[in-house]
Model the fold of this input.
Amino acid sequence: MTKLFHRDKPLIGLDISQTGIKVMAIDTQKWLVLGYGSADLDPLKIQRSLEGDDDYLADSLRALLADKIVGTLPSTQAVIGIPSSRTFSRTFTLPAKAERNIADAVEVEVDQYIPIPLASLYVDYEVIERTKEQVTAVMAAVPRTLVDNVLTAVTKAELDPIMVEPGINAVARLLETTEDGHLSTLIVDIGPASTDIAVLDNSAIRVSGGLGIGGNTFTLDIAKKLNVTLENAHQLKVLNGINAGPRQAQIVRALSPSLERITAEVRKVIRYYTERITEGHKIEQVLVVGSGSNVPGIGDYFTNELIMPARTASPWQRLDFGTLPQPHKQFRPRYITVAGLASVKQEDIWK
Done:
């Protein structure tokens, strides 16, 4: 009875990151945005809130819901995205005849590859492919403390948590719908403080990675190398970027160390995918998203470095804001994850 009651209610997305929180509600039949809002958070305080038991996250969420929503949120049923950098994901295969023992195989994967004891994790898995010879499954694990603290904060803010997933999964869901997601796709999600990298193939995240470099890092790099204020550095980043222009050489030199580190991590993810997960199946496109993707020329940079087509993804042609004022173009990329969370279908939760 409880599940049937929940099924009848609309869902809202709630994205919790290392630097902020966002909410959004979408009518998925029309792709009409019903309401949205965001609030920046103190990175140190949110980290303590996710790892401890203070009320900073709950209080911030309450303030957002009370004062900063554009439009309306149709329910309290929340699909929650948590920082992908705090989660673990692996794809593995086993012989088809061993599928009955898949739970044991998942435990082996956790013991071998995750540096946290099994008892301290929530672990789930899904079979994503079957052949006569083998079964392919994706396993996800997340620290219990993180999930428990998030659920406590969300409940204190008078929302009803329905589902929790890594933010990169929500990004993949939206891109699959709006950006030729049937292709084998490498996602580079450049957030304010970190970059998440994942391969989306056949409607599933096959492999993921990441590192602690984001859009804020780019701003700091420019400010330091060009000896300008953070405000001027941000303007140079979003207006000039690494496109051709009078400041291009200086900005490229400033950003090169951070971009090269991201590219190195991307290559590691690609190598793992092509050597261990697929047999000759190549990645067909690279999509750059997130608040750090608003650097002009960044798509061309990855195209040249990876020697494969890369572009900045923009799902806004699919989302209809109706009579609501849209976020400024500069801030739209920050809503991609929460839009993916808000687009979860009820049947995918209760199947």
Observations:
- Residues 210-311 form a domain with the Nucleotidyltransferase; domain 5 fold (CATH 3.30.420.40).
